[in-house]
Structures are given as C-alpha cells and as structure tokens.
Amino acid sequence: MLLFSISALAEQLGSYKASNGKLYELGNIVKLNRGSGQNGNFVYLTLGGIGFASGGVSAQLDHTFTGSNCTIKKIKKTNDERIIFIVGAGGLSNYELSIEDAIATCEIVDCKKDVIPVIVVNTPSKFDELKKLKELFDTGVLTEEEYKTEKEKLLK
Fold this sequence. Notes:
Blueprint: E1 11-13, E2 15-17, E3 23-25, E4 29-31, E5 45-47, E6 59-60, E7 69-77, E8 83-88, E9 94-98, H1 99-104, H2 126-138, H3 144-155
Antiparallel strand pairs: 1-7, 2-3, 4-7, 5-6, 5-9, 7-8, 8-9
C-alpha cells in the first residue's frame, strides 16, 4: 500500500497572494485564530506536511492551537488547485494549512472580516437518542410508560 502526503502531489511555490489580499512567502508567520470546528477545533489545520504519510487521512488539531504562530515552510499548489501551506508551530511536527479555507472560516487572524465563522455541531441521531432513552429506562429514571411515549416520538 502506497502512502503519501498531499504535499507530495503538489507544485511548490515561492509565494502566494491570497484572497485576503495578503502576500504570503516562505518564512512568514501566520497567526491562528479560533478553529471553525466543534469546540473551537481546527478544521483546515491538520497534522501532516513534509514527510508525513497521511494516505488521505488527516488529524484535526484541537482548540489549544488558538493564538499560535505558524511559520510557513513550504507553499504547495495541489493537483486540484488548492493552496496548502506546510507550517511549523514550534514543535517537531509539521502541519498542513489549507489557506483559502482557513481565510474563509477565520481560522487565521488575517481572514475576511465580513465572514461569520461557521461552528459545526454534531447533532445526535435518533438512534443515539433511543440508546439514551433505553439507558434511562434500564436505570429506572424513566417508567415504562414514559419510555414508550418518548420512544414513539423519536420513531415518528
């Protein structure tokens, strides 16, 4: 099985003028804002970069990276025309930053200010709710009648 990084399939660039009007070059600092995912986690900043064998799997970074400075190590243009920055945040790992997505969702400080960041919220499925109801019934919190009534509501 061949594993490869998104950056291995890309054209390397020396600089990139982004949709926020800023010219990014190697060695520049990108300051992170708040992640646009659940609990402030980053959606467009993922573990990866130089030498990372992701095989298409990425690990989103949690909210603890909020306010961090990232140094641009490489700028890549992927086969599907996306711009990916390979950045370092002071540790041993490199990260892939999908810069236009990060700008659009304000995951970086230099974002489009007229955009309201979208927070992704995972809504439990009816099966998750049924499981919770069953647990409440099994522990005696709900009577059999309450359990049946709530179960019918969920299954409609």
